[in-house]
Specification:
With 762 residues, the protein is an all-alpha fold. Among the domains are: 66 residues, no CATH class; 58 residues, Winged helix-like DNA-binding domain superfamily/Winged helix DNA-binding domain (Arc Repressor Mutant, subunit A, Orthogonal Bundle), CATH 1.10.10. 71% of the residues lie in helices and 2% in strands. It is built from 42 helices and four strands. Strands 2-3-1-4 form a four-stranded parallel beta sheet, with no helix packed on it. β2, α2 and β3 form a beta-alpha-beta unit. The radius of gyration is 30 Å and the shape is globular.
Length: 762
């Protein structure tokens, strides 16, 4: 029996029983009555199965309590119901439905053409004729007066604590005593007004002093003067990092305010707090209301700042950049610190779009407004823009002092944003350890301060810096966490960023199937939204797949055909060189290598200098050995073992073809050992084949007893009861890849079933 919202999740078990029983009877009821109980007992002695979906008690029948659908699954359901549903509207519906499948169906069915076209806002409540809403209304009517009053309190205050109320009445109210937005919105519409007024009055008398009590007092007494008190509470909540509470109190202050401009000001603050808390769709809804109330230039500019920040994560980045530039221009004379922040976000939006022209315009405007006595809070953003523009232009000597200042200033400026800028700057400078420290600190600061909107962004640089450190397990964890964090708060662009980083990680390990699956998952969004930066990451990953499959010409075409992000194309240069050399096109390789050599040489990054020497080893003839030996030394100094193995594989191949098999075998054995430690099966096979070609007949690789980071993730999820398809969805892998990894896990751990695997991992 399935317990949860009636009708929810019934199909989850159908496939599990259809091959076991001759007949399957599905029943969807609010409660299990005596007749149904007798039927269940009768069916138990046959080759039939009875599946009951109910919200009631199981009455002794075997039962499973269903969890709500997660956000990703809810969005898939909506897109199945309404193909082409706008992403912002889908996010609004997902939040309202709270994981209830029936609510998703009824909300999708109620959408108007104006809502689908983006003209009208998303619904705030289930339709009047919704079966769920009719059911709740009937339940409410059947309650005792005491229980109805308890439900009314939930309708007017989501933070009501059951322990402070009549527990018998709470028990009677049952599912209606629910703080989820789905139930609350329906109750606010359906609970009679006298009961709601009584609930406000009771709470105004019984709650301790604070924002909640002030709100209920204001509703009860109609005292608009209490809006100032709510504003004070909201500002205090914001300073404490409680953006959700700050948004609530600013919104309530707006409801008590008659003056349109002042009301718009309160709503604008509420919208900014919703955005910071990671609820961009709610922020947009509030801003739609605020926009109708003001024509003040400063408020309009502040709205552009908030909307631009939302668009940065979930919409077209070039549109976000233009809106943020407009916000900066409107605020520079009155709210200079916010104007500089808008420029920082505009630069990031232009970078995501791969629009060098826009980035240059942003950085030049930042240069124009710069002052001699710039405080650290604004200087860090201005120096970041200056340094990154110089980097994109290849002016690394000019970039270095600005980017070093950004790293140094991060300790003086509170909050996560400064640490994100510092992490990016340190990454460009080649200081991977410092970049990883700053990114990790930014993630922690964003979570502790409640600034949820910045978490996925910070995780991008935690993943990239871990990759530069050759810490693939840490990079995999950060990027996977980034996908889920961005999905949870509707930052679709950040989801794509992390998916393409995950694709690159898989491609570098030679796991082509996983890399291609992740690229395919991201491609549609890259194209629709103009996401050039993740698109270039995706092309880079695809090129690595082509190289792994011995298709260097295809790899080279990936880079030629992709317009590309200037900075990432430089980062990918070592693979361009590898492809061009394999195609017999040294001039193309040399042109790609020159900007990379200049960047690596200026910053002094040991890991990048190693790659630079490897590339020269591939290109040169007389000095190739010296370049390869220096690359190997630098790889070891930087601790980048996987790249060391690839260098030794390339060098071993060159030595073998140069009729130096003994020297080749030394490097190739080392390469095999390292690839085995990374569980990079493709590269183990490639290096082993090369080793055999060099005359080593005893070079068959042995199974490593440990698991790769990805295999460990899969094993843990399987041990927790996840199916292969659930694991694939969770880790953004193909179903076939999960099956492949699971077979290897069983072999390496010496187990034969999921049950044995679970016992082994306990």
């Amino acid at each position: 029996m399935l317990r949860g919202e009636a009708g929810a999740g019934k199909t989850a078990l159908l496939n599990a029983v259809e091959d076991t029983y001759d007949a399957l009877l599905c029943v969807d009821v609010p409660e299990v009555d005596d007749d149904l109980l007798r039927l269940a007992r009768d069916v138990g002695s046959t080759r039939g199965a009875l599946l009951i979906a109910t919200e009631g008690e199981p009455r002794g029948l075997p039962s499973i309590t269903l969890d709500p659908l997660d956000a990703v699954t809810s969005i898939r359901v909506l897109h199945d119901l309404v193909p082409g549903l706008p992403s912002t509207l889908a996010a609004d519906l997902v939040e309202l439905a709270c994981g209830n499948p029936l609510a998703l169906v009824e909300l999708a069915g109620s959408l108007t053409s104006a809502q689908l076209g983006g003209i009208a806002p998303a619904p705030e409540v289930l339709p009047e004729n919704s079966s769920l809403r009719l059911r709740w209304r009937a339940r409410f009517a059947a309650l005792s007066p005491e229980a109805q009053q308890v439900v009314a309190m939930v309708a007017v205050d989501e933070e009501v604590d059951a322990e402070t109320l009549d527990l018998d009445a709470v028990t009677e109210a049952g599912p209606l005593f629910d703080s989820r937005r789905l139930v609350r919105s329906a109750l606010r519409a359906d609970v009679p007004l006298p009961l709601r007024r009584r609930a406000h009055a009771v709470l105004a008398e019984t709650l301790p002093p604070g924002a909640r009590r002030t709100w209920h007092q204001a509703v009860t007494t109609h005292d608009a003067g209490l809006a100032d008190a709510l504003t004070t509470y909201a500002e205090h909540a914001r300073r404490c990092g409680d953006f959700a509470t700050a948004a609530r109190d600013h919104d309530r202050a707006a409801r008590l305010t008659a003056d349109p401009e002042l009301k718009a000001h309160h709503l604008l603050k509420a919208a900014a707090d919703h955005w910071a808390h990671g609820a961009p769709h709610r922020s947009r809804a509030v801003l739609r209301t605020a926009t109708k109330m003001t024509h003040t230039p400063e408020l309009r500019a502040l709205m552009d700042l908030v909307v631009g920040g939302i668009d940065l994560g979930e919409s077209l980045p070039d549109v976000a950049a233009d809106r943020l530039i407009r916000a900066a221009i409107g605020l520079v004379g009155t709210r200079r610190e916010l104007a500089v922040a808008a420029l920082g976000f505009a630069g990031e939006a232009a970078s995501i779009a791969g629009d060098h022209r826009r980035y240059t315009a942003v950085a030049e405007f930042a240069k124009e407004i710069r002052r001699g006595d710039e405080p650290p809070a604004t200087r860090i953003t201005l120096d970041h823009l200056t340094g990154m523009l110089a980097t994109f232009d290849g002016r690394h000597d000019e970039a270095l002092p600005a980017l070093r200042t950004v790293v140094d200033l991060a300790g003086e400026v509170p909050g996560p944003q400064a640490r994100i800028w510092a992490s990016q700057a340190a990454y460009v400078l080649g200081d991977a350890t410092r970049s990883h420290e700053m990114a990790t600190s930014a993630v922690t600061a964003a979570r502790e301060s409640g600034f949820t909107a910045l978490v996925p962004w910070a995780l991008v640089y935690r993943a990239l810096s871990a990759l530069l450190l050759d810490q693939h397990a840490a990079a995999l964890t950060a990027a996977t966490e980034g996908v889920h964090a961005a999905t949870a708060i509707g930052q679709h662009n950040a989801v794509v960023d992390h998916l393409t980083i995950l694709a690159l990680l898989a491609a570098l390990r030679g796991d082509s199937d996983t890399a291609l699956h992740r690229i395919d998952t991201a491609t549609e969004q890259i194209t629709q939204r103009g996401l050039t930066r993740p698109g270039t990451f995706g092309a880079w990953a695809f090129a690595c797949v082509d190289l792994a499959r011995d298709r260097p010409a295809d790899a080279l075409d990936r880079f030629r055909l992709q317009p590309g992000h200037a900075g990432i194309k430089v980062m990918a240069a070592p693979h361009v060189v590898e492809a061009a050399v394999a195609c017999g096109n040294p001039s193309t390789a040399d042109r790609a290598l020159q900007p990379f050599e200049k960047w690596a040489g200026t910053t002094g990054s040991t890991a990048r200098l190693a790659l630079s020497h490897r590339c020269r080893g591939l290109l040169e003839s007389g000095t190739a050995d010296e370049h390869f030996e220096e690359a190997i030394r630098l790889h070891r100094a930087s601790g980048t073992a996987l790249e060391l193995a690839k260098t030794e594989l390339l060098y071993g191949n060159r030595l073998r073809r140069g009729r130096k098999p003994k020297a080749a075998r030394e490097h190739l054995r080392d390469a095999v050992r390292i690839f085995q430690s990374y569980q990079a099966d493709h590269w183990v096979e490639r290096a082993s084949a090369e080793l055999r070609a060099a005359g080593d007949s005893t070079s068959e690789p042995k199974d490593h007893p440990g698991l790769t980071p990805q295999q460990a993730q899969i094993a843990r999820l399987v041990a927790e009861g996840a199916t292969n398809r659930e694991v694939a969805a969770r880790l953004f892998l193909s179903h076939r890849t999960v099956e492949h990894h699971l077979r290897n896990i069983f072999a390496r751990l010496g187990v034969r079933s999921r049950v044995e695997l679970t016992r082994r991992l306990d």
